[in-house]
Amino acid sequence: MTTRIKKIENKILETFTGSNAAVSALVVFLGFFVATLILFIIGRNPAGMYQAILQVVSGFDSRRGTWNVRYIGEWLVVSMPLILCGLSMGFSARAGLFNIGAEGQYIAGLTAAQIIALSFPKTFIFPVLGAIVIGSMWGSIAGFFKARYRVSEVVTTIMMNYIALYLHRLISLRIPGSTTFKTPDYAEAASLSNSFLASITNNSRLNNGLWFVIAAVIVYWLVMEKSTLGFSLRAAGFNRDAALYAGMRVKTNITIAMAVSGAFAGLAGAVVTLGIFTHGRILSSFEGYGFDGIAVALGGNCTALGTAIMGLLFGMLKSAQPLMQSRQIPREIVSIIMGLVVIFIALRPGIQVFIEWRSRAMAKKEKE
């Protein structure tokens, strides 16, 4: 019996330090497992959590026995900015950088999209492109200081989040017709709304942002996995000194990586403000998409497909929060699951060290 338990234990440990896909699946399972235990401990029925999740991904309400596809549409709407901000974090991480500034880059893109949509109301193309460009420029500032003066991108991007928020308020409050919390309404042509997508999802807010998200995932994959630029970024991420020795332009690549990261986050700002709302908003605090994107990227191993799947997973959890509350499940359980996923991912190197230590100890014991 003891030998069998040890085999199972070793199998779990090997999985946790094995393939990236297996690790992601395992940490998600562990997150839900611990959350289930917590619900049991506080006297709540975990079935309510899983019923809410089922309703989000399928539209089926187990309590009433009815179907409503609108839940699926809203799930995708919530997931879109999470995926884009996850791509923002993941792109820089593959280059050996830690971008904490996706929130600020998101706000910069959102601000640009709102101003351009109100100034050029005949199409949504200009606001979306403006958001991408401004988000990219905002991200490249931190990249420039990192490459030129070796200023920590962590510190720089954290501070630039606050600069972006308060600049957003200063600029947006001066838009003619704005109040303390909203701008005038967008013209119909400047919105990302899509009547067909809304109709097939029972009047959900699903919009043309979906196509931009799909395109962003494909672009991320092509650039990072299939291009010379992606190879040099990944090489610098693995070993910056070796990349320099190989003749790669590491400093230039740092700025490019942060600029592309900012472009993804800026696009997220446009998707939210032009797709979900009919008017621009004047933010009073962070919305959290950029910070959630860190968890999305880490859980998805900073790959295009993994980040997209993890964004859908976290979007599912966030969409299920109101449904969980209606079933007497604390909404905080969603944040607990997301936090646990990041914690378990962070434990991976430690477990690898433990396995190596244990292997040496067992080898020494066998020799004796």
Could you characterize the architecture of this molecule?
This protein has 368 residues and is an all-alpha fold. It has 16 helices and 4 strands. Strands 1-2 form a two-stranded antiparallel sheet. The mean pLDDT is 89.
Reading the helices and strands in chain order gives HHHEEHHHHEHHHHHEHHHH
What is the number of helices? 16
Termini separation comes to 24 Å
Structural class: mainly alpha
What is the count of β-strands?
4
Shape: globular
Gyration radius, rounded: 22 Å
Helix share, percent: over 70%
Key phrases:
368 residues, mainly alpha, two-stranded antiparallel ribbon, 16 helices, 4 strands, 74% helix, 3% strand, globular
Question: Can you describe this structure in just a few lines?
Answer:
The protein is 74% helix and 3% strand. It is mainly alpha-helical and 368 residues long. The strands form 2 sheets. The chain has a two-stranded antiparallel ribbon.
Topology record:
Blueprint: H1 2-16, H2 20-41, H3 47-58, E1 60-61, E2 66-67, H4 70-94, H5 102-119, H6 125-149, H7 153-172, E3 182-185, H8 195-200, H9 209-226, H10 228-238, H11 240-245, H12 250-275, E4 279-281, H13 289-299, H14 304-326, H15 332-346, H16 348-367
Antiparallel strand pairs: 1-2, 3-4
